[in-house]
Amino acid sequence: MRKTLLNALLLLSFVLLLPGCSRDGSYSKGEYLDPDSPTPVGDYYSDTDLKMAAEAMFSSLVTSPPIADAKKPPVIMVMMVRNRTRDRIDMEDLTNKIATALIRTGKVRFVNRRLREGLVHEYEYQKSGYVDPSTAKTPRQVAPDYVLSGELTSIEMPRRSEKRVYYRLTLRLTDVSTGLIVWQDEKEIKKLLRK
Length: 195
Description:
- With 195 residues, this protein is of the alpha/beta class.
- It has one domain: 3-Layer(aba) Sandwich (Rossmann fold), CATH 3.40.50.10610.
- It has five helices and six strands, in the order H-H-H-E-E-H-E-H-E-E-E.
- It has helices at 2-17, 47-62, 65-68, 91-105, 116-126, and strands spanning 75-78, 82-84, 109-111, 146-158, 162-175, 181-194.
- Strands 1, 2, 3, 4, 5 and 6 form a six-stranded mixed beta sheet that branches.
- The radius of gyration is 25 Å and the shape is globular.
């Protein structure tokens, strides 16, 4: 009887404590933050750094001659920005931030690079006989005029009581017809951290 009561109390305690636990067991309370509020400066590439770099690149590219002087919105294929730092950074997020800001202007159009392979399979499936031929789509994809690519690099310079961290995002726009780079710019972020 005593053992059963003890087990019941332990089970009840576990059930009552369970709602306060998080997925990893270490955080039980939280709050929402303004996504535009800056992240405290650290020796890593933060969301604030990502936002500053994306905004700088967007502003430069949208005012560059290939975009600003175009008679109709050029078609761009955005390649994944390469991470050449030691940090674990979501490069898809950085790439998407730049692409989202550009497409909102209405000055460019985008080819969905990630979906192309899936579309090829869909076109093949529609010709397979499983799809009503009157509803099958004829491929007429638009080729890109330009490819946007780039990389993020970093240098760390530790000293006795401080550390300097330097990041550089470089992007370039390449003309698909000629292979010539028609625009290139970079955004530098330098941080000083003290012990």
